[in-house]
Structures are given as structure tokens and as C-alpha cells.
Amino acid sequence: MPAAVGVIETLGFPAVLAAADAMVKAGEVTLVYYGIAESGQFLVAVRGHVAEVKTAVAAGIKAGEQTFGGKVTTHYIVPNPPENVETVLPIHFTRKSEPWRVG
């Protein structure tokens, strides 16, 4: 069964760092991607069971918004991404993330 994916996009690096930290602490999820989205916006993506991803994303949103000057611009959860989405987007488990894979 494919793992759900949850993504948070923030304005500014401190907010995405706080969101990523809160996400991996709040739920049994694996951080699979982080990077620059565009002009000062950053994103972080996690994978795991749907319930865990929902919990993690909620915690990440809260942490990102509570960061000084932080703003969560968007977020989304895809409960069951098809394989073709995994081939196009960088949400698959990599050699670097595999040792920390949960579930």
C-alpha cells in the first residue's frame, strides 16, 4: 500500500525548519523532500500512513505559523498517490531517506 504524502510550503526558511521539525516529531512519518519552491518560499514533504501524515501536517502548520515572521502559504495531503505521480515529483523514498522510513 502506497504511503500518503503531506507537503507544507512556507514563506521563509525558519518557518519551514520549524514545520519539518514538528512534523517528524508529531507523527510516524519520514521526511522525503525539502527545498526551495520560489522567491523565498520553501517546502517540506513527508510520507507515512494517512493518519500519521494528517497529524504531522497539522503540527507542522502550527509550528510554521508560530515561528517569528513565519507564514504557511499552502499545504496539502495526498492519501494515496499513484505511481506516476511518484515518478514525476520528488516524493519517493531515496537511499538517504530509506534508513529512517517508518511503516
Describe the structure in your own words.
With 103 residues, this protein is an alpha+beta fold. It has one domain (12-94): Alpha-Beta Plaits. Helix content is 36%, strand content 33%. It has helices at 13-26, 50-66, 83-88; strands at 4-11, 29-38, 41-48, 71-78. It has a four-stranded antiparallel beta sheet with strand order 2-3-1-4, covered by helices on one side. A hairpin with a 2-residue loop joins strand 2 and strand 3 (41-48). Helix 1 packs antiparallel against helix 2. The chain is globular, with a radius of gyration of 13 Å. The relative contact order is 0.28. The model has no long low-confidence stretch (mean pLDDT 87).
Topology of helices and strands:
Blueprint: E1 4-11, H1 13-26, E2 29-38, E3 41-48, H2 50-66, E4 71-78, H3 83-88
Antiparallel strand pairs: 1-3, 1-4, 2-3
Q: What descriptors fit this protein?
A:
globular; 103 residues; 3 helices; Alpha-Beta Plaits; 4-stranded antiparallel beta sheet; 36% helix; alpha+beta
Gist of the model:
The chain is built from three helices and four strands, in the order E-H-E-E-H-E-H. It has helices spanning 13-26, 50-66, 83-88, and strands at residues 4-11, 29-38, 41-48, 71-78.
